[in-house]
Amino acid sequence: MRDWEGEFPSLPAPPPGEAPFRRAIPVGPSTEPIPAADGSSATPQGRESGPEPEPEAAPRPPEPPEDARPGAERTGPAASTDLRSETTPPSGELYSESFLEAEAEDDPFDLPGTEKLGIVGGKGVGKSFLFQALVYRTYSKAQAGAVGLYLDKTRLFYALQRKDKAQSLSLTEFGKKYRFWERLPQTKLTTQQWYRLRLSYGTGIWGKRPAAMDIEFFDGAGENFFEASRKQAGVRQLWREGYLDARVMVFCLPLWAAFPGKMTPEDWQAREDLIGGFESVLRNYEDLRVEGKRTQPVRSILAFTMADDPRNALVKLYDKWIVPYMDSPAQYLSRLQSESGVARYLANARRVSEALHRELLATRDPRVSSIRQKLDFGGGLPWLILLSAIEGKRLDQIEQKYQDPKERIGLPEPVPVHVELPLLVALCERHNALM
Amino acid sequence: MQDSLYIRHQESQGSWPDPLDEVGILDKIGTRALPASSLSAASACAFVITFLFLQLGKVHSLFMLSRATGLGLGITSAALAWTIVVQCSRRPGCFWPRSWALLLAVLTIAFVPLLFAFPTETWISALIMAGVAAVLVLLFRLIKLRPDNGLVSRIAPLTLVVVLPLVLLAAGWMRHAMVASKTLRVDQMIDQLSRWDADVNRVTSRDWSAADWDNASRAVDQLNQIQLDGHLDLSLWREASALGKDGDLATAAGKLLDTTVAGLTKDRVPRVSRLSVPAAYYDVQSKPKRWKKSAVFPKASETVGQYFQEMGRIFSELDVQDSFPESGGLTELKKRYLEKRARLTEELRSQMGSWTDHWAVLRVPECDHLVGQCDMPLGRFLRTPSPIRREPAADLQGLLSISYETARNLGKLSGCRRLLPYQEPKEGTLHEFYRIDCYSYSPRPKDLGADLRVEMRLVYDSPVAVGFKSSDMPEEVYFLFPLPEGMDEDEFKKQIMSDFAETISEATGLETDAGNRGNSQVNGFKLRGVAVRPRFVPWLEGRKGLEVRAQREK
I want to staple A144 with a disulfide (CB 3.0 to 4.6 A). Which of A148, A413, B191, B360 is the partner? Predict the structure, then answer.
């Protein structure tokens, strides 16, 4: 039991033999919008919430504001706000000057040799939360989990378009919403951004020579980018830039959508949307490879997000694989500081993956049981990872108790669970780090 | 009720792991560290195990790589080790795997010069093989493994289990082949020593008095085939000791040692003093009288010289310089060798006292160590007892005091020739002469034979009309020193006469009187009634000889 749990009202105990009671977090268009603090509309049910803007003829990343473009004299909140007022809701994710670190990069964002980590999935699967959690996990070497042995520090850059100069982002500011339990607004066409996470580590004969690996991530709008037809010129180009040469692809699908448990009819409808979106994403990626004539093997990871969602049927797995880590992160992170801890952790992650493969085969839904074959892009069957970027139950509790986000300052921060594994895969793909 | 109609997924797995749960037995070892570290540990294990495997046990000393094999393995493993260092240095990770890779690379490259610095040391070969094993295990760090690969936790133990037995098997096979080869080598050497012993025995048992020096020379030539250097070395003794055959080897070598020493005793060695005809002699029977050269002597002396040289070489090659305490056989042989060496020294010193045959001893290799000298200066030679009543040549008074009767009854004189009395006109009167000619030789520089160094004559002279009386004393002691080719006459005469005078003076305790201001003995001297006068006379084949005549003053 975590020491801060007492601050929240106790939840009723689950019936015997059932999963611990967790509030359903429905995702889908049927959810009721609630007013956001700034007056814009947002859906409270989905963790990536917010209505989509009106569909555009050709979804493209927005033109950066004048002051955010290369060569602009300054970037500032006013300019960003102006842009948002035209193209994005006020809760959009364009960064104000205060978010940017003083040291600006002169490099263009589009650097050769950058390792691309594709995190893809349909609308509302938690891609942005996953990336936020992943960056948060690498804040500190001591808390970086399975990659802590390798990392010295990380830096984050972003750009609206690949041709832009890379802007250095303060990790603290970037993860502010995440750390203060704020729901991330759903990524819109206008808020799509390129991120580059720079992982610094020591190499050389003595391990003292500083080196770094850049990992690119494109935070695209789920519905209008991942699931949209790639026949649209802008989308096709973005897919190509973002994922064509990625050697590691993370495909996100909520765990409960793959392994549904006790759900309402609305949940079943939402599941249909998620599975359909996932298939669209897969189809888009396969088409991209065919068009791009790419035959190189790609390591695929199937990330079962929202592992803490009570709608999933794998209750025992949740209890064993998620809950202990989430309840005592310090204990696990401490043990993951040692090689033996990481080795054992990876061995168990493989056991979970193997068991999840068996679970997939055991599902009655052919769309789900066929996922494992569909994700084999020459690099073998996918690694199945179960993760939780943010605890949904806790998020609901905090939202109820502390409606003003400012009141949440000082609360224990979210515990992302198993989110760093894709980073380790990318590190191994690039540097064969384990060996 | 409505909910039960939905197709809910049924969790099929009974148990799921905790993130840090204990893993199965197969993964237990491999999850003690990440593959980079566990492979490094496996590599270190392979290094130690292979080294111990090749070093432990009695036959460990038999594992010795040839230079070419050692060089090839050493360079290959060093190249692979440095490849690992370079490749792995580009990765992030912990310090220990980096340091082990670097250490291994440094070690493997250091083993190569060590192989040449200590070519007979087995631990170098073991280190090289251990390096190969360690590098082969570490080579698996170059395999690309992703975190989801099941081999991550098994690669280190699997590599150790697969690679190490293969390396040990290969090393064991090599050692087995080496043992078989070394056993054969030791057995062959034991057989060879026995054959060599028989050969030496056959040569040394030969009757040298037979005049067939061509056959004798061929027999002695066989000794040249006995080459112990490079065969009976320390490596062979180590191998024999490891195989438990050092006793047999020592016995065989000991027999050869005994036979060799026995073959150098005075009774067994060939000697030129046994020849009836000296190297050169003045034939008083021929007309006109002239110097003649022996047709047999060159071959005979060369055979004798070669005999001493070869036998001395075999003896010295039986001395194994190094030793190691593990071999009782070698220790015993060395002890025996020292005993035999003392005996041989005594024997050869005795032969150095031979007026005629001492030169052959000088042919023995390392004669300075064995007998304390490798030359015979004239002074020392003149003090050597001559065959005639053991009187040294320097004792002119003594030689001139040997009566005619005594001389006639001296019996057989080794290295001397007793001439039958002959007549010859002298100062207008016919005189009868009786001579005993003795010859001494020195090693010939251009081959293994000998050259005449000095001829000494004890000359009795009496008018024919008077005839010899028993009490007649020698008319003179006559010496002839052949002038060495290329040597200045005056220099030669000066050297001979000064040595002669000095030796005589030391031998008798009397001062010589040269009759000149500086007392220079170059042109002769007197000593208590005996006048010694030198002059050059024609000798053999156009050469000259320095004639030194010691006569009583009348």
Answer: A148
Domain count, chain B: 3
CB atoms within 10 A of CB B229: 9
Q: Is B4 on the interface with A (CB under 8 A)?
A: no
- Do B261 and B197 form a contact (C-beta atoms < 8 A)? no
From the list A317, A342, A348, which residue is nearest B21 (CB)?
A348
Question: Taking 90 as the threshold, does the pLDDT of residue A220 lie above it?
Answer: no
Contact yes or no for A385/A353 (Cβ under 8 A): yes
Boundary-marking domain end, from B318, B346, B370: B370
Residue of A202, A268, A348 with shortest CB distance to B19:
A348
Three-state DSSP at B421 gives: coil
Q: Are residues B282 and B387 in the same domain?
A: no
Answer whether A151 sits within 8 Å of B92, measured CB to CB.
yes
Helix (H, G, I), strand (E, B) or coil at B16: coil
Task: Render pLDDT for A256-284 as a digit per residue (tens, 0 to 9).
Answer: 999 999 999 999 999 999 999 999 999 99
Domain boundaries, chain A: 104-431
Interface membership of A355 toward B (CB under 8 Å): yes
- Contact between B460 and B435 under an 8 Å Cβ cutoff? The reply is yes
Q: Which of B13, B30, B89 sits opposite A316 (nearest CB)?
A: B13
Mean pLDDT of B402-416: 91
Q: B144: nearest CA in chain A?
A: A432
Residues of chain A above pLDDT 70, percent:
75
Classify B40 as helix, strand or coil: helix
If one looks up domain A104-431 in CATH, what number appears? 3.40.50.300
The pTM score is 0.68
Domain that holds residue B437: 378-552
Whether residue B103 is contained in a domain is answered as: yes
Q: pLDDT tens-digit profile of A363-377?
A: 989 999 999 999 999
